[in-house]
Fold each of these.
Amino acid sequence: MKRQEIWIDEYYKDSRFGLRGKVLFKKTSKFQEIIILETEYYGRALMLDGCWMTSYRDEKYYHECLVHPALSSIEKKSNILIIGGGDGGTARECFKYSQVKNIDLVEIDKEVIEVSKTFLPEIGGNTWNDKRLSIHIEDGIKWVKTKKENYYDAIFIDCSDPSEFSNLLFSENFYNECKRILKQKGILAIQSESPESFKNIHIHILKSIKKIFAASKTMYSFVPVYPSGIWSWTFASNQELNFQNPICEEILKIEKSCDIWSLNYQNGAFKMMPNKIIKEIS
Ligand code: SPD
């Protein structure tokens, strides 16, 4: 039977953010409803529990901004943790650095990984066959508790918006655990929601991180399919952050490989904090 095109919207307060296309896959896993939509303009898109997670057209706006400011700014980057990230895009960007020896990808919902491998092969790319990748189907909150101090060089929180089962990934307890298992010169990178459509949780993240870590900085850019389009990524460390003079021999190669991120892009994005957010967090 020929698939019909339909509109699927993410509802946020009194607005909605929709894509039109054909549903390739729809299933409710143990944790959430998973939809893959094939659209003409955005390509394939993944929706979890009514929220757009990623699409072929705009995923690089998100994944490149989560990974490269972090990994280009730290000297050692061999052992990495990704919490969430079941579509493989964050791991793919990490593997661009030859120093990376191990990535623990901790995803609570194994169906997200399976669906991504099947329907979004362009996002994970070769990641799924890379021997340096260890996939753990596990709750990220439990995972960080089992790790010893000073363990990871970089931790990426690539989670969904706050919900019943992801709420704790936005808690101070969780950030404290991340701090504990992060090496002294390591970096934590968080998708820190939208200063517009998720303003309260965005401010909560920034304030919590500021309280817990010695240094933190937030950058702002776009992810077209997310509510309001404007999005943010927050980076934190137990020591000074170094975005101005990145320590990375491969930086030119990495820049060339990216569609969105570059040092220039990042420098502008770190200056984009809206005044109303500055007022609320200071
Ligand atoms: N509003 C959606 C926020 C989701 C952030 N994570 C997306 C996962 C992409 N790897």
Amino acid sequence: MWNTLKAHRAAVVDRRFETMLDTARAADFSAMAGDIRLDYAKTNIDASGRGLLLDLLEQTGVAAKREAMFTGAPINETEGRAVLHTALRNLDGGPVHVDGVDVMPEVLDTLARMGGFAESVRSGTYAGQGGRITDVVNIGIGGSDLGPAMGVLAMAPYHDGPRCHFVSNVDPADIAQVLRSCDPTTTLVIVASKTFTTIETMKNARTARAWMSEKVTDVGAQFVALSTAADKTAEFGIDPSRVFGFEDWVGGRYSMWGPIGLSLMVAIGRDAFHAFLRGAQAMDVHFRNAEWTENLPALLAIVGIWHNQVCGYATRAVLPYDNNFSRLPAYLQQLEMESNGKRVSMDGADLAVPSGPVVWGEPGTNGQHAFYQLIHQGTRVVPCEFLVAARGHEDALHHQHQLLVANCLAQSEALMKGRGLDEARSKLADKFKGHELDRQARHRVFPGNRPSITIAYPQLTPFVLGQLIALYEHRVFVEGVVLGLNSYDQWGVELGKELATALQPVVEGTQSVAGKDGSTAGLVDFLQAHGV
Ligand code: F6P
């Protein structure tokens, strides 16, 4: 199947896709899910290429796998687990069974408990020793940080609860800076960890507990735990009434819909959080029912596969023209790279094609004045994914928003059209002549024919946030199934964790560097000589 696609690509590689782009193509190569529009007309995918890519979905059984995921089959085969983050937003759907047990009553019960708690924090019914909670500190890392951290920023216009801070790094600079800005008597600490064993999180949680105990008598009363490990949260001293649990069928990077989203719920309130869940649920329904040719997650996936596995473009830039989405690229880095950054397929064989791409990005116009130079004129092609809202939340500054939108549309147009040598020469003809004109003009050539897609939406509301994040989750799923890998484990993070634990006594000087490689030993020597 890959050979047919590569042969097709070889046949069209020199084509300028701009020449195909009439209004019929613009309509044919865009699709809607609710009021979200995906435009993938500015790519070199034509109807027969799209047909071949969609064949991949049939050949690899995406539809059957999709059903298996939604119905609680253990598709995370290396860990023997179901993959059911969709159950967390199945607000009015039917029962979902795992091993014959309907998980929905517990999901809905936990959601109701979260809602009750979040509202009590927001209203002041739940208070700290010093009164109403003014600050919430979420301590977690990876999926226990990035989802709510990204979400709280994205939802800034709806944030009417206490201030929210996110501590993830074990670097003491992170927690020290946050705690300096908080009053322990009015701070709520949320320890977010699926396993409740993650070294960084537990270290930070103990630091926060010590900080709070200097001023607060009943420290446990101002701590909340979000975890699957009830025994460990009890050991830490957190009362079960403030523990919000979930099951192992929710992967860390897919967990912001449930308890891990508590800080977001406290920030924007129960109703807005429910709207966020409903947006995701709407995308689930779309993903489950829409034809592939109209199915946004499937289309996003085939565009990704075309660019990465077929064309060989190794990276994917995510460029939100929406400042509140400033952490979206970081969030997607974990979602996509921890999910599809694998080198073997489900059965343990080497992958036939490269694994998922390197995902990176920054909010729109900031990137324009930094790395877009390479995107436009560098020797590598970087497929770009633009996100843009029709409206911001600053009504009085709508004209400024229009300028933002114009910038977004201009970038995809520039990437596609480029600027040829003749045009560059004519723009400079009154300044330079002869060889100097040629030399100067060559620096001003834009090769163009560089692909991008645009995801447009009316406004970044809680509902739209839910739609968009679920869209990306399902895209990762489809790409993972086509590649034949397990998107839901993360063994690649384990080796570093083991070695860090083993190196700690070496760094502290209670164990010698003997047996370490020369480079590591040299670095330890240097750092110890300088006071580590
Ligand atoms: O080390 C990777 C990882 O397991 C992620 O998958 C996860 O999101 C993160 O660590 C945090 O894990 P936990 O929620 O168990 O603390």
